What we know:
mainly alpha; 193 residues; 9 helices; disordered N terminus
Amino acid sequence: MTTGPSEEPAPHRVRRDVQRNLDTLLTAAADVFAAEGVDAPVRRITEKAGVGSGTLYRHFPQRSDLIVAVFRREIDACVDAATALSAQYEPLEALTLWLGCLAEFFATKRGFKTALHSGDPAYENLPAYFMERFGPVVEGLLTAADASGDIRADITPYDLLRTMANLVDPEDSAYTRHMITLIVNGLRYRSGS
C-alpha cells in the first residue's frame, strides 16, 4: 500500500511588508481598544496604524475578526511573559509579577465582556483558547511556588484566573496592585504555620 503526499497545505509565507502591516494594525487596535473599548471607530485604529481602511478590512473583514485577533495575540504575549518571568525570578516573585501582567491584560479589555456574550459566533472558541493557553501557565507558576514552599497547594488555576478577572479595576491600578498583594499573602498562608 502506498501513501500519497501529505494533504496538509504548505505553510503560507507572509511577505514582510504584509506582516509588518498586520503587526502594526494589531498593536494599534490593542491600544485603541484599551483606551476606548472594542467599539471604538475603525478610523482611529487605521489612523494610529498609518494604514488605510482597505488594509484593515483585507485582514479583518469583520470587527469581530479584529477583536479575536487582538485578544489571542495578547493572551499569547501574557503566556510568553510567564515563561520569561519564571526563568528570571524565584517562583513566588515570578507568580506575583505575572499576576500584574494578567491584571493589565484584564484591565485593557474594555467592552470585551459585552462582545463576548453578544452571541456572535466569532467569539465561540475564545473562552476555550483562554483556558487552554492560561491554564497550563498558571498551573506551572502555582506548582513551582508550591514546590519551593512559598504557597499553599489548594488553589486551582481556574480559581486564580477567575479571581483575577473579577478583582481587576481598569480605572484604579493601585487598587488592583493592592488586591494582588492580598491574594499572594493569602496564598502564602498555611493553616497551622
